[in-house]
Amino acid sequence: MPDTLTIKDNRTGKTYDISIEHDTIRATDLRQIKVHDGDFGLMSYDPAFMNTASVKSTITYIDGDKGILRYRGYPIEQLSAGTTSFLEVAYLILKGEAPTKTQLEEWRLQIKQHTLVHENIRKLMESFRYDAHPMGMFISTIAALSTFYSDARDIFDGHSRERQIHRLIAKAPTIAAFAYRHSNGLPYVYPDVELSYAGNFLNMMFNTGSSKPALHSVLEHALAVLFILHADHEQNCSTSAMRSVGSSHVDPYAACAAAAAALWGPLHGGANEAVLGMLDQIGTASKIPDFIKEVKEGKGRLMGFGHRVYKNYDPRAKIIKKLAHDVFEVTGKNPQLDIALELERIALEDEYFVKRKLYPNVDFYSGLIYRALGFPREFYPVLFAIPRIVGWLSQWEEHVLDSDQKISRPRQIYLGRPERNWIPIDQRT
Ligand code: CMC
Fold first, then answer.
1. One of 268, 326, 350, 402 is an active-site residue; which one?
2. Rounded to an integer, what distance in angstroms lies between the CA atom of residue 385 and that of residue 370?
3. pTM across the whole model
4. What is the pLDDT of residues 275-323, one digit of tens each?
5. pLDDT at residue 405 tops 90
6. Is 376 left (phi over 0), alpha (psi -120 to 50) or beta?
7. What confidence category does residue 334 fall into, taking pLDDT thresholds of 50, 70 and 90?
8. Which atom from ligand 1 is nearest to the alpha carbon of 295?
9. Which pairs count as long-range contacts for 131-134, CB under 8 Å and 24+ apart, including other chains?
10. Could you give the CA distance from residue 218 to residue 323 in angstroms, rounded to a whole number?
């Protein structure tokens, strides 16, 4: 059987054979379907890209119905099982294959070498208001990095791309920690290259002057696992922003800042912050039924639930839920865990959520761990952004090297006024 789709246009009676490749038709093949010669041709209308593949990618695989997530073919459950470091996973995502010991050592050295930021970046951060949102500081400072590295504009030079990738992965935790220290009026702690990626970040955040790093191995491990789980998630809103902005050939700092801005919204990476806000607002388990009733009446959403792609339990949420118990053994249990567990239990039995296939997503339990680790609520989206930079950069590089790609430029269906004559203001009624 040929891999084609036969379309009959009932306006003209003509039929067209359109090729099918990877269970997909090319939207531009529809353009040959015309009523007359001067006709623009048929387009597809797909707000929010509900059924449009805009890239061919080899990085991350998701099966939303089965709840499967793999980076470069490796199941997320194996990558987050505790024997793999975040930088190892970052290497895998960016380069396509797991590193050998020597490659990993070299990769670690390259990242470590770039963890410091220029002192002017520190000064720039000092000028933010005392109550600036850390995600706003993070986004602005990532964008500002482009003013320090003019070589970043040479996006078709592989060495230049590699340098910017090292810099962004290395400096993101430093910038994030500086944003936290700034908000708290604390002196900035500089990177310690002897520590792991997550360990160095925790130390820059929480060290209060001791020469010993501020670390607990269980907590450091938990953060590393969270970083692994957030490293990539194929064509989500922020990654699409990265690709779309990057498609204009702007430098990766500007594109990463745009991606981070997209991540900040409460429907995307800002959901973890919103979940804790919701749990704070519910307050006690006895108020859950009223809250669920309001959600079902359309007065707000159950934050941390639902996903565009997963119509099953988000595999990351399963791992995080288990991880939360390990963390609470060290930090003591947070009473909000009970509220979250009860919310989940009730929602998963409720017809409203069952019918719409709404399950906990990655953000439902992650905020509880962040809180237990001592991060303030408004900082949670930053914790999502740090590891996701790996995914953004990997997807950006794939985009830059993809000969199928051009500048992103969707079409529209214009439904506004037809041409009319301008009337000067004193003649308008
Ligand atoms: N609570 C209550 N109802 C919901 C929820 C929710 N969290 N999510 C979806 N629905 C309902 C929605 O009202 C709609 O119902 P109806 O068909 O009666 O109009 C139906 O489910 C489909 O929802 P949708 O908004 O059309 O679905 P979407 O694919 O456009 O949105 C989503 C996906 C993640 C934006 C949405 O589920 C949501 O707003 N969830 C809460 C925010 C959240 O947790 N975001 C984090 C996403 S995962 C991390 C990430 O990648 O950023």
1. 268
2. 14
3. 0.94
4. 999 999 999 999 999 999 999 999 999 999 999 999 999 999 999 999 9
5. yes
6. beta
7. confident
8. 2
9. 131/183, 132/179, 132/182, 132/183, 133/378, 134/176, 134/179, 134/180, 134/183, 134/378, 134/379, 134/382
10. 10
For the question of residue 37 being annotated catalytic, the response is: no
User: Are the C-beta atoms of residues 344 and 302 closer than 8 Å to each other?
Assistant: no
Residue 69's DSSP bridge partners are 62
Compute CA distances 73 → 45, 48, 69, 76, 81, whole Å: 32, 27, 9, 9, 16
**For the CA of 263, the nearest atom of ligand 1:** 52
Q: Are 395 and 239 in contact (CB under 8 A)?
A: yes
- Rounded CA separation 181/296 (Å): 40
Tell me which residue of 293, 317, 286, 294 sits closest to 304, measured CA to CA: 317
Sequence-distant (≥ 6) Cβ neighbours of residue 34 within 8 angstroms: 40, 41, 42
Paired strand residues for 8: 15
User: Could you read off the pLDDT of 335-378 as tens digits, one per residue?
Assistant: 888 999 999 999 999 999 999 999 999 999 999 999 999 999 99
**Are 303 and 275 spatial neighbours (Cβ–Cβ below 8 Å)?**
yes
Please confirm, yes or no, whether 307 is among the known catalytic residues: yes
pLDDT at residue 15 in the model: 98
Residue 214 has pLDDT above 80, yes or no: no
Residue 127 CA, ligand 1 centroid: distance in Å: 37
Continuous segment of H or E residues that includes residue 351? helix 351-355
CA 5 to CA 362: how far, in whole Å? 37
Active site residue 363: yes
Which residue is listed with tokens 């290259």?
A: 193
What is the 304 CA–ligand 1 centroid distance (Å)? 9
Ligand 1 atom closest to Cα of residue 236 = 51
Which protein residue has the closest C-alpha to ligand 1 atom 22? 356
Task: Report, as an integer, the average pLDDT of 378-407.
Answer: 97
Residue with tokens 């900035």: 188
Within 6 Å (CB) of ligand 1, which residues are found? 233, 236, 267-269, 271, 295, 301-308, 356, 358, 361-363
Instruction: Please tell me the predicted confidence (pLDDT) of residue 345.
Output: 94
Residue 87 in tokens: 């930088």
Cα separation of 319 and 138, whole Å? 27
Q: Which residues are CB-contacts of 173 (< 8 A; sequence separation ≥ 6)? A: 115, 191, 197, 200, 201, 204, 386
